[in-house]
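The aim of this short unit is practical: by the end, you should be able to scan a pair of folded records and say something sensible about each. We start with the first protein, listed as its amino acid sequence and then its C-alpha cells.
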Amino acid sequence: MPTLARLSVTPLKGTLVHHPDELRLTDAGILGNRLFYLIDERGELFSGPDHGPLVRIRASYDASHERLGVGMPDGTEV
C-alpha cells in the first residue's frame, strides 16, 4: 500500500517549498498552496523550472491579513 511521506507547498509558485506538519485539504485542493504566480512582460508564467534562482526565495501568506511575504536570499523581506 502506498504511503504519504510529506507534501510540499508554497503560496508563490516556483519558490522554495515548505513541508508543514499539517495541511487543510478542501474541495479546491490544499488551502493556501500556490495562490500566487509570477508572469513575465508577455503575460506568460514565470516559474522555477525556467528560472532556478526562484527556489531560493521563501514566500509566506497570512490569509487573515491577505498579505504575501517574500524572503530574499540576502535576508531582505518584502
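Turning to the second protein, read its sequence before its C-alpha cells, just as you did above.
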Amino acid sequence: MPRFYCPAPLQTGLALSLPPGAARHVQVLRMQPGDVITLFNGEGGEFEATVTRMGRSDVDVEVGMHHPVEREAPCQVHFLAGITANERMDWLVEKATELGAASITPVMAERSVLKLKGERADKKLAHWQGVAVAAAEQCGRNRVTRIDNACTLAQWLAQHPVSAGSGVRLVLSLSEGTRPLAEAVQGQMNVTLLSGPEGGLSPAEEALALSAGFVPVTLGPRVLRAETAPLAVLAALALR
C-alpha cells in the first residue's frame, strides 16, 4: 500500500486534502477514488485513508483506522554529519533515515567541500528534509529523521553541553587509542555520533570533540569512505 507523509493532525473520520507532494505522487500512480493509501504524520503510528476525489492538482481523502505500529531502531542515534559533496550527502541522508537516525545535523567541517550560508543553506536543508521524508515513506518508518540547521562543530558543542542522561558521544577516528564500537556503546540507548567529511575531521576538530566527551571509536583496520563509515555504525546499532 502506498505510504505518504502528511504533516497535519490526523484522526479517524477526518476529511482532508493531501499536501502537494503527496497529491502529485498519488496522481502519478494513477490512483482513483476508492483506492486506499497509508498516511503518517511523524507523531506515532499510521492511518489508513481512502481517496475520495481526484482533482487536477489536488487529492482529497478520508482518514480511516489508526494502527499504532512503530518501526524505530532500538537505539536513538543523533548523527553529526560532516558535510560531504552534494550527491554523497543526499545518499547519506537517505540511508541514515532508512537505518533509523533520529536526527541529522550537517556539520560544516574544515574539510567540507560544500559551504552553506544564507538562502543556499535554507534550500539545502529543505532539500535534505525532503530526502528524509521520501526515505521514511519508502522504508516504512512512521517517524521522519529531523534535519537540524547546519553549524560548525564548535557551535554545536556550545549549544549541547554534556549533561546527565544525554547518552554516549562517539567520534569515528583513525587516531591511536580508539575503542571498538561495541565496547564504547555498552548497551547505551541514546548515542550521538560524529563523523567527518571526505578527508575526515581536522586534528583540531577531533581534539575539540574529545575535550567535549566524545569517545573515539574504530570500525576495524579498513579505511571507509565518509558516507560509508557512519552508515556501518547506524546499521550495527539498529540491528543489534
